[in-house]
Amino acid sequence: HPTIGVLALQGDVREHLAALRSLGADPVSVRRPGELAACDGLVVPGGESTTMAKLARIFELLEPLREAVAGGLPVFGTCAGMIMLADRIEDGAPGQETIGGLHITVRRNAFGRQVDSFEEDLDVDGLADPVRAVFIRAPWVESVGDDVEVLARVGSGPAVGRIVAVRQGPLMATSFHPEVGSDDRVHGMFVDLVRSVR
Ligand code: GLN
């Protein structure tokens, strides 16, 4: 089984550990550089990206995380985790840092007050049936680099067409929270990615 870490500084760590466990991966919480080094893949959870970035700096994980991404570690970021992987942020806090490596610009809290939080049946590339996607003060992807594959766009409503799932080599990110609920297929895509890289 691949060892898949969940960055456990802040956010909904437990739900990701459970989803990974149900898929037969060996999930571990990551708070130290040594724990990161033992991982075949890493999930960066949802939560609050400014707090997560500050804690990553304090725990001396930001540089090791950047090195891991540069070294090809598969990483899956959800919501705040997507922001953490992004090269650029619109509407970020002043001086907000990210791990980076994913060639996208995200807009933080993009959906605005009317649709602050919502759910949608979302078509995701590579999955036969739609995913019930839960968005909670989510970012969207404002723009992508040439090497970034768009996996999903919002299908209806005021944000129709906005990019909410992407992949770039071993990096994956979703605006929504695939760890809530009992549908493990998006995590399954990531576990397959980890297996294929290993
Ligand atoms: N709005 C949060 C942020 O900026 C992300 C919300 C989430 O992860 N559910 O980090």
Automatic annotation (TrEMBL):
GO terms for cellular component: cytosol; glutaminase complex. L-glutamine binds at G47, E48, S49, R108, I136, R137. Keywords: Glutamine amidotransferase, Hydrolase, Lyase, Pyridoxal phosphate. One of its GO terms (molecular function) is glutaminase activity. The active site is at C79 (nucleophile), H177 (charge relay system), E179 (charge relay system). PROSITE patterns: GATASE_TYPE_1 (PS51273), PDXT_SNO_1 (PS01236), PDXT_SNO_2 (PS51130). It catalyses: aldehydo-D-ribose 5-phosphate + D-glyceraldehyde 3-phosphate + L-glutamine = pyridoxal 5'-phosphate + L-glutamate + phosphate + 3 H2O + H(+); L-glutamine + H2O = L-glutamate + NH4(+). Its EC number is 4.3.3.6, 3.5.1.2. It comes from the Bacteria. Pathway: Cofactor biosynthesis; pyridoxal 5'-phosphate biosynthesis. GO terms for biological process: L-glutamine catabolic process; pyridoxal phosphate biosynthetic process; pyridoxine metabolic process. NCBIfam families: PLP_synth_Pdx2. Catalyzes the hydrolysis of glutamine to glutamate and ammonia as part of the biosynthesis of pyridoxal 5'-phosphate. The resulting ammonia molecule is channeled to the active site of PdxS. Belongs to the glutaminase PdxT/SNO family. PANTHER family: PYRIDOXAL 5'-PHOSPHATE SYNTHASE SUBUNIT SNO (PTHR31559), PYRIDOXAL 5'-PHOSPHATE SYNTHASE SUBUNIT SNO1-RELATED (PTHR31559:SF0). In the presence of PdxS, forms a dodecamer of heterodimers. Only shows activity in the heterodimer. This is Pyridoxal 5'-phosphate synthase subunit PdxT. It comes from Nocardioides exalbidus.
